């Protein structure tokens, strides 16, 4: 089952890379795609597992990284999520396997 989640705070390839790494680590989640401009995360959920539970798990993981579902947080919680997203983005940039010392 393919699902898409509109999230906040995606700014760059580092954000996308961090999201892909964390969601890939979840059992039953695969083929993760991140549309930076649209703020959309799309992935396939294993059809053998409960899709509602899996989708909730994906949304919770995204929120814990600072990329909550659009409209799900307000005020200080939204500001906290934005701060977390900066950290996730930086980690994603540092661990981007497509960037090598030869690229620099």
Automatic annotation (TrEMBL):
<dbReference type="Pfam" id="PF00403">
    <property type="entry name" value="HMA"/>
</dbReference>
<protein>
    <submittedName>
        <fullName>Heavy-metal-associated domain-containing protein</fullName>
    </submittedName>
</protein>
<dbReference type="InterPro" id="IPR036163">
    <property type="entry name" value="HMA_dom_sf"/>
</dbReference>
<feature type="domain" description="HMA">
    <location>
        <begin position="1"/>
        <end position="70"/>
    </location>
</feature>
<dbReference type="InterPro" id="IPR006121">
    <property type="entry name" value="HMA_dom"/>
</dbReference>
């Amino acid at each position: 089952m393919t699902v898409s989640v509109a999230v906040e705070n995606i700014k760059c390839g580092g954000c996308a890379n961090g999201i892909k790494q964390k969601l890939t680590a979840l059992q039953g989640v695969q083929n993760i795609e991140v549309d930076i401009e649209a703020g959309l995360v799309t992935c396939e959920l294993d059809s053998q597992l409960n899709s509602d539970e899996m989708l909730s798990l994906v949304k919770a993981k995204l929120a814990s990284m600072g990329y909550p579902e659009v409209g799900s947080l307000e005020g200080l919680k939204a500001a906290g999520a934005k701060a977390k997203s900066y950290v996730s983005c930086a980690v994603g940039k540092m661990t981007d396997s497509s960037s090598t010392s030869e690229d620099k």
